[in-house]
C-alpha cells in the first residue's frame, strides 16, 4: 500500500517501521518515517501516509500537524485507496469536524473493506 501510494502521489517512498509499541502510529518528518504500532490498522497507515504527502507536496509553512491542508491530503489518500468507510470516528476531533462538515460522516462504518487492504504483515 505504501508503494502504491508513493507511486500514485509521485513522492519518494517513506521508510516504514512496524513497531512493537502500543501506540497506533506516528510520522517523523525529519526522516520521512512511518511507524506503525503493534496492532497494524490500515487506516492508521493511511493517516500516517497522508502526513508524508502533506509534508512533501503541500506543507511548507504550516506547522500544525492536522491542519486543513493535512485533511485534504488525507482525503486524497483515502480516495486513491478507494476506501469509502474511513473510520472518522477514530480520528482527531478537528479532522472529524471537517469530515462531518463535508458530509463524510454518517455512513455506516463497515471496516471490512478497509481491512481487506493488503498493508499489514500477518
Ligand atoms: Zn496524525
Q: In brief, what are we looking at here?
A:
The chain has 122 residues and is mainly alpha-helical. The chain has helices at residues 2-9, 42-58, 68-81, 93-101, 111-115, and strands at residues 15-18, 25-28, 33-36.
Q: Approximately how much beta-strand content do the residues carry?
A: 5-15%
Mean pLDDT across residues: 83
Which parts are unreliable, with pLDDT below 50 for 5 consecutive residues or more? none
The oligomerization state is single chain
Radius of gyration: 14 Å
Major β-sheet annotation = 3 strands, mixed
Please write the CATH class name.
Answer: Alpha Beta
Q: Are any ligands bound, and if so which?
A: zinc ion
The amount of helix comes to 40-55%
- The CATH topology annotation reads as Zincin-like
**Count of DSSP-assigned helices:** 5
Widest β-sheet, arrangement of strands: 1-3-2
Q: Tell me the total number of β-strands.
A: 3
**What is the CATH architecture term?**
2-Layer Sandwich
Shape: globular
Task: Give the ordered list of helices and strands.
Answer: HEEEHHHH
The separation of the N and C termini measures 14 Å
Number of structural domains:
1
Structural class estimated from helices and strands: mainly alpha
Amino acid at each position: 500500500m505504501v508503494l502504491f501510494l508513493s507511486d500514485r502521489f509521485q513522492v519518494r517512498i517513506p521508510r516504514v517501521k512496524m513497531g512493537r509499541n502500543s501506540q497506533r502510529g506516528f510520522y517523523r518528518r525529519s526522516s520521512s518515517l512511518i511507524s506503525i504500532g503493534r496492532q497494524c490498522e490500515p487506516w492508521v497507515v493511511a493517516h500516517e501516509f497522508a502526513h508524508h504527502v502533506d509534508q512533501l507536496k503541500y506543507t511548507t509553512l504550516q506547522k500544525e500537524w492536522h491542519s486543513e491542508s493535512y485533511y485534504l491530503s488525507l482525503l486524497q489518500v483515502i480516495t486513491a485507496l478507494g476506501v469509502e468507510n474511513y473510520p472518522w470516528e477514530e480520528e482527531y476531533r478537528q479532522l472529524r469536524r471537517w469530515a462531518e462538515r463535508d458530509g463524510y460522516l454518517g455512513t455506516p462504518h463497515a471496516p471490512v473493506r478497509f481491512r481487506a487492504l493488503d498493508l499489514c504483515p500477518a
